C-alpha cells in the first residue's frame, strides 16, 4: 500500500482500492453468499416460497450422494454415486490437462526466456498470442471439425499410413475424455506458458552458466537451479489451467461424447434444464469448496504461497 501511495498519490490509490473493493463485494462475495444461502433451501413452486415448507436443510447436498452406479477401478467394481463419479473424473482429467500443459510449456518457456534471440522473441510471442485473438467458442468448434469421423485429422493420418481406418476421437481412443483433454490443453496451454516464462526470465543467466561450468548436466541444472526459481510461475500456471479446465462448460459440451459427463455440465443441467437453482447452488458450492481444497494442496506440494504467485 505504501508503494502505491508513493507512486500514485493518496487520491488515485484510494480510487484503486474502492474499485477493487467494489468488484470483490458486488461480483464475488455477494453472489457467492446468495448462492450459499440458496443451497440450503428446498426447490418449491413460487406460491410456496416463504411458506411452512421453505426451511433450511441439507437435502440438496445429500443429492450429491444419490444414484450409485458401477465403476471399475483396476479391475475392482465399485458402487459410486453418479455425481461423485462425475466430479472425480472432472478433477482427474483437469489435473491431467494441467500436467500435459506443464510438460509442453516448460521447455518452450525456457527456450523463449534464455535461448531465443532478442530479435526473434517478439515474433515468437506474437505467433503464440494469435490463437487468443479467436474466441474459445470458435476454437472449440474448429477442433470439433478436426476431430470428426471424416475430419482432416483422420484423413491426414490415413494418408500418412499411420492408421488403417478412421478413429472416432470424440468417443475416445483411450478414455471417453480424450477429445476434451486435447482441446482443453490447446485452449489453456498459454495460461501455463506465460507465468513460467516470466519466472524463468527473471533468473540471472549467470547462475545457469555457473552450474554448467561446475560440470552439472543439463537435467541437474534445471532441477537444482531453474525449477526452484520458477516454482511460483509453475504453481500459478498449474492453478490457472486446473481451474479453467475444471470449470469449463463450453469445451466438454462441444467436443465431449455422451459418455463423458463433465461436472459443470451437471451443474448447468440443474440450473437450466431442471430449473432447480437450489440444488444447482448446492452442487456449485461443493465444486467450489473441493476445488479450493485441491488448489491449496497443490500450493503445499510446490511449497509456495499465494503471495509468491501474485509477484
Automatic annotation (TrEMBL):
Gene3D superfamilies: MetI-like (1.10.3720.10)
Membrane topology: Multi-pass membrane protein
Keywords recorded for this protein, A-Z: Cell membrane, Membrane, Transmembrane, Transmembrane helix, Transport
Record field: transmembrane: 12-34, 91-112, 179-197, 234-255, 281-302
Database matches in PROSITE patterns: ABC_TM1
Predominant location: membrane
Domain ABC transmembrane type-1: residue ranges: 87-298
Localization (cell): Cell membrane
Family per record: Belongs to the binding-protein-dependent transport system permease family. CysTW subfamily.
Full protein name: ABC transporter permease
Amino acid at each position: 500500500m505504501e508503494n502505491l501511495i508513493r507512486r500514485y498519490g493518496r487520491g488515485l490509490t484510494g480510487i484503486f482500492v474502492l474499485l477493487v473493493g467494489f468488484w470483490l463485494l458486488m461480483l464475488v462475495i455477494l453472489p457467492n453468499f446468495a448462492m450459499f444461502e440458496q443451497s440450503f433451501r428446498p426447490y418449491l413452486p413460487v406460491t410456496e416460497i416463504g411458506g411452512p415448507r421453505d426451511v433450511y436443510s441439507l437435502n440438496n447436498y445429500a443429492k450429491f450422494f444419490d444414484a450409485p452406479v458401477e465403476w471399475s477401478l483396476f479391475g475392482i467394481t465399485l458402487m459410486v454415486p453418479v455425481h461423485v463419479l462425475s466430479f472425480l473424473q472432472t478433477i482427474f482429467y483437469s489435473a491431467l490437462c494441467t500436467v500435459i500443459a506443464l510438460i509442453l510449456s516448460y521447455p518452450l518457456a525456457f527456450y523463449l526466456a534464455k535461448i531465443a534471440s532478442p530479435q526473434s522473441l517478439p515474433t515468437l510471442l506474437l505467433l503464440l498470442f494469435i490463437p487468443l485473438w479467436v474466441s474459445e467458442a470458435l476454437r472449440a468448434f474448429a477442433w470439433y471439425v478436426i476431430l470428426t469421423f471424416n475430419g482432416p485429422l483422420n484423413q491426414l493420418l490415413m494418408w500418412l499410413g499411420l492408421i488403417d481406418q478412421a478413429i472416432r476421437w470424440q468417443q475416445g481412443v483411450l478414455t471417453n475424455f480424450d477429445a476434451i483433454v486435447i482441446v482443453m490443453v490447446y485452449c489453456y496451454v498459454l495460461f501455463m506458458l506465460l507465468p513460467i516464462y516470466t519466472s524463468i526470465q527473471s533468473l540471472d543467466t549467470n547462475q545457469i552458466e555457473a552450474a554448467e561450468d561446475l560440470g552439472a548436466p543439463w537435467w541437474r541444472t534445471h532441477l537444482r537451479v531453474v525449477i526452484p526459481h520458477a516454482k511460483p510461475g509453475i504453481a500459478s500456471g498449474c492453478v490457472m489451467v486446473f481451474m479453467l479446465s475444471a470449470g469449463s462448460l463450453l469445451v466438454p459440451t462441444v467436443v465431449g461424447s455422451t459418455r463423458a459427463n463433465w461436472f459443470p455440465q451437471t451443474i448447468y443441467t440443474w440450473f437450466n434444464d431442471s430449473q432447480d437453482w437450489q440444488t444447482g447452488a448446492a452442487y456449485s458450492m461443493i465444486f467450489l469448496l473441493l476445488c479450493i481444497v485441491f488448489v491449496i494442496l497443490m500450493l503445499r506440494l510446490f511449497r509456495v504461497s499465494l503471495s509468491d504467485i501474485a509477484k
